[in-house]
Design goal:
The complex is a heterodimer of chains A (about 525) and B (about 350). In chain A, about 55% of the residues lie in helices and about 25% in strands. Chain A is α+β, with helices and mostly antiparallel strands and about 525 residues long. In chain A, strands 9-11-10-15-14 form a five-stranded mixed barrel. In chain A, helix 11 runs antiparallel to helix 12, helix 11 packs across helix 14 and helix 12 runs antiparallel to helix 13. In chain B, helix 5 runs antiparallel to helix 8 and helix 9 runs parallel beside helix 11. Helix content of chain B is about 70%, strand content about 10%. Chain B contains twelve helices and four strands, in the order ααβαββαβαααααααα. Chain B folds into two domains: about 200 residues, Multidrug efflux transporter AcrB transmembrane fold (Up-down Bundle); about 80 residues, Alpha-Beta Plaits (2-Layer Sandwich), CATH 3.30.70. The chains are: A alpha+beta (about 525), B alpha+beta (about 350). At the A-B interface, helix 6, strand 17, helix 10, helix 12 and helix 13 of A face strand 4, helix 5, helix 9, helix 10 and helix 11 of B. Strand 17 of chain A pairs antiparallel with strand 4 of chain B.
């Protein structure tokens, strides 16, 4: 008797816990505030896997170093035959004459002591050098690029407004995003993937643009295009600009970016604020280059290249272009959240519209109810009263899985619903094993009470063995699976555990309760 | 109510040679169809590419969809009706393995014009080639490792040889890892792993583990064969289904093994053949009942669960049927193999 009450207590505790955890799902807002999350396939949304192109981050670091070196050489008037970046990671330099070689060596030892010398040949007063970043530095850039990209993406998603996004690093260089419920999927994708490298560059006015377009691009400069759309003719216009490669100022110093409306033409533009240091640089550069042109470049596209009218102080600038308000808003978001340290490559995309998800839930539920009902009806026909016990166990089983999903904040996916349906079939199995065993014992002539005890005792080990193997398969699946498949593994594991509980504890308690204190002649099984 | 009389005694084991031939033929058919189709047909999850699910608000012609697709450069893709006829849903598969900006909008606009219906782009899945390869390897490893862990569990539980089993597993994991450094194809790696596992089980006389694993390979193999024969795609959910089949088929096998173990203890003198056959018969009622209820719910899923889950349920359906058969006719008779060998020597 004492054993039974202990068991009843446990059952009550488990059932009440499961019910409590299920409450918030049925009626939002109630304690304990843990709901069953619906997977992307059920509620619609996006699953995006980006690869951070880390080598590009290294390449731009190498580019910057090369530009710094070029500027230093020019400042100290060191003649050089060649200074170029090769394969995005090597800097090749060639010099002639004793004097330049000596000064160069000084510069190298003083300001560029961190560079690794890959190759160094001196022949007839001619020195050719290949430099690169040290491996440790490259590893650091790689590491930083992914971490920074992750942070930037988080920022952008926050500002875009997605409820419960899941953004995480995967592997060495990948970032996985799960964005449930996103409606404007195209916009979200563009917002995340945009590098948003903002640069202010001086226009190279000492060289000829026409010559550059023919292929004679002077060292330290490049041709970039301004693309504008004429709203009247709906044609896009490509205007080339010859710009210095070196940016005088970048978005790095930006503190804020906001959408504003031009009072004169009613066009939206983005106004940006620099921090103190950025403001100073901006003031100095504009002061030094009055009447020259400066281009605003975003991700390699020129937005505008106005003539500097006067020294600009106060650390403010504006980016114009013919934006729609939405475009301007997104531009402000990406500028505020900072540039991505390296381009992102979209490697995997799965987006599900909300209508499909609702449909999936509906058909999943229907098949669950139909399949479940068939089993529920069948059991009492075959096992009579004992069948009802199996039915009770089955219902409790579903309650436990649902409660478990909520408690662990697991995600219910379409394969997950399939997992629950499958568990219905398998939960019955444990009871079938027990009932068959009890029947066998009864055929051997045992009295009901002894038959039930023997039946449960014998079947317990079998049930355990059989379920542990399913659990192994489910756990492996959880380990290797992604997204929907993981959801399936979770429900399957929960189902196995729940069916162990209902068969071995619940069913037995009901059996013993009906047998307790009475002398039962006949067992309805 | 009873389907199976308690004193039933069907001679399953006596017909095992027939079963061997039958299974061998099925497996051979699997290999033939796989060779014929040049390997399994991988879905976008594994091969890389794009799947687009479209829904129209009224019936449209396939030609109109195709015309619209080729207009935006997706002409090489295949278009297929999906789900129920009155749903007007179609599935487009394309090799396009990179993200294209504004694809959904472009599709909807073009198809609206071509078909005269309102297009709803319900789902777009794009998997890059590298990710596809990763997922493929993950899936293969998942199947391999679940089989391995299960084999260890069985050797431990049924023959109290945990150490031997654990050593085999450690050696295998080490070997597979070592070989993977030489950039051998993962599929070959896993195949080699499985063969070595079977050889080890054979010589160490881990018969229960051997029986279970052979049955699992049999079930998974034949399910793959049926899929290949019907030219169905292998996707991530299908791998999940295969792993579930592994769990399910094992469930069945273990219950019979458990009975064999119990009967061996009760009557150690009886010939193994008789014991095995008796055990299969004693558990027959349960086997049929459980398979029956599981089949019923999976059938409900298959017929009512909707397009996305259709193939998944189909795999389970095949797996449950084959798994039930293999527990009786494949796993159990394998226990007798060693007996023969002992008698001969």
């Amino acid at each position: 008797m004492k054993r039974i009450s202990w068991r009843l207590l446990l059952i009550t505790a488990v059932l009440v816990t499961a019910a409590i955890y299920l409450l918030p799902t049925l009626r939002p807002g109630t304690w304990p505030h843990k709901r069953i999350n619906l997977g992307l396939d059920l509620q619609g949304g996006m699953h995006l896997l980006f690869k951070v192109d880390r080598d590009k981050a290294v390449a731009s670091a190498v580019d910057r170093t090369a530009e710094d070196l070029r500027a230093e050489l020019r400042r100290q008037r060191v003649q050089h035959d060649l200074l170029e970046v090769r394969e995005g990671r090597l800097i090749a330099v060639e010099l002639r004459g004793q004097k330049p070689i000596e000064t160069f060596q000084e510069i190298l030892d003083k300001d560029f002591i961190g560079l690794r010398i890959v190759e160094d040949r001196t022949q007839d007063e001619r020195r050719s050098l290949t430099l690169s970043l040290p491996d440790k530095e490259i590893a650091h850039i790689h590491q930083l690029a992914v971490a920074q990209a992750l942070e930037t993406i988080r920022n952008r998603i926050d500002q875009f407004g997605v409820s419960e996004p899941d953004i995480r690093r995967q592997g060495d260089d990948q970032i996985l995003l799960q964005l449930p419920g996103v409606k404007d999927q195209q916009r979200a994708k563009e917002l995340i993937g945009r590098t948003a490298l903002l640069e202010f560059r001086l226009v190279d006015e000492t060289h000829d643009l026409e010559a550059a377009l023919r292929g004679e691009v002077p060292a330290g400069s490049e041709v970039l295009y301004e693309i504008s759309r004429d709203p009247q003719t709906n044609r896009s216009l490509k205007t080339p600009h010859l710009l210095k490669k070196r940016a005088v100022l970048t978005g790095e110093y930006l503190t804020d970016a906001r959408v504003q409306i031009d009072s004169q033409y009613n066009d939206p533009y983005v106004s940006i604020d620099f921090d103190a240091k950025g403001g100073q640089i901006f003031e100095r550069v504009t002061g030094e280059n009055v009447k020259k042109r400066m281009a605003i470049v975003l991700d390699g596209n020129v937005y505008s290249a106005p003539v500097i009218q006067e020294r600009i102080s106060g650390g403010k600038a504006r980016i114009t272009g013919n934006f729609t308000t939405e475009e301007a808003r997104d531009l402000a978001i990406v500028l505020r959240s900072g540039a991505l340290p390296a381009p992102l490559i979209l490697e995997e995309e799965r987006s599900v519209g909300p209508s499909l998800g609702a449909e999936s839930i509906r058909s999943g539920m229907i098949s669950m109810i139909v399949g479940g009902l068939l089993v529920v009806v069948f059991m009492p026909i075959y096992y009579r009263r004992a069948g009802l016990i199996a039915d009770a166990a089955l219902l409790v089983n579903i309650l436990l899985i649902a409660g478990g999903l909520a408690a662990f904040q697991a995600t219910l996916t379409m394969p997950g619903i399939a997992g629950i349906i499958l568990t219905i079939g398998m939960a019955v199995d444990a009871n079938v094993l027990i009932f068959e065993r009890i029947r066998e014992e009864l055929t051997l002539g045992k009295p009901p009470r002894a038959a039930v005890d023997a039946g449960f005792d014998r079947a317990t080990l079998t049930i355990l063995d059989a379920n542990v193997t399913t659990l192994i398969a489910a756990l492996v699946l959880f380990q290797f699976g992604t997204g929907p498949v993981k959801g399936f593994a979770v429900t399957l594991s929960l189902g196995v555990v729940a069916s162990l509980f209902t068969a071995l504890v619940l069913s037995r308690a009901i059996f013993e309760q009906t047998l307790a204190g009475r002398k039962v002649e006949h067992l309805s099984i | 109510m009873q389907f199976i009389r308690p004193d039933i005694n069907i001679d399953f084991i006596g017909k095992r040679r027939l079963a061997y031939v039958f299974s061998a033929l099925l497996l051979l058919a699997t290999v033939v169809t796989l060779v014929w189709h040049q390997g399994p047909r991988y879905g976008v999850d594994f091969a890389g590419g794009t799947v687009i699910q479209l829904k129209f608000d009224r019936p449209v012609s396939l030609d109109a969809i195709r015309a619209g697709l080729s207009e935006i450069g997706l002409g090489q893709g295949t278009v297929q009706r999906f789900g129920e006829h009155e749903d007007n849903e179609y599935l487009v598969r394309s090799d396009l393995a990179e993200s294209r900006d504004g694809l959904a909008q472009e599709l909807a606009r073009t198809l609206d014009g071509r078909t005269g219906a309102v297009t709803d782009v319900q789902r777009i899945e794009m998997v890059g080639p590298q990710v596809g390869k990763d997922l493929q390897n993950k899936a293969l490893f998942a199947i391999f490792f679940s089989m391995l862990f299960i084999a260890i569990y069985i050797s431990g539980r049924f023959e109290q040889r945990w150490t031997v089993a654990a050593l085999i597993a450690a050696a295998l994991i080490g070997a597979v890892y070592g070989l993977s450094l030489f950039k051998v194809g993962i599929a070959w790696l896993i195949l080699a792993g499985l063969i070595v596992t079977l050889i080890l089980f054979w010589f160490l006389e881990l018969r229960y583990a051997m029986g279970a694993i052979v049955a699992l390979i049999h079930d998974v193999g034949i399910t793959i064969g049926v899929f290949s024969l019907l030219d169905k795609e292998f996707t991530l959910p299908i791998i999940a289904a295969l792993l579930t089949i592994i769990g399910y088929s094992l469930n069945d096998t273990i219950i019979i093994f458990d009975r064999i173990r119990e009967n061996l203890r009760k009557n150690p003198r009886n010939p193994l053949e008789t014991t095995v056959n008796r055990s299969v018969n004693e558990t027959l009622s349960r086997t049929i009942l459980t398979s029956g209820t599981t089949l019923v719910v999976v059938l409900a899923l298959f017929t009512l669960g909707g397009g996305i889950i259709h193939d998944f349920a189909f795999a389970l359906l095949i797996g449950i049927l084959v798994g039930t058969y293999s527990s009786i006719y494949v796993a159990s008779p394998i226990l007798l193999l060693w007996q023969k060998r002992a008698r001969r020597t």
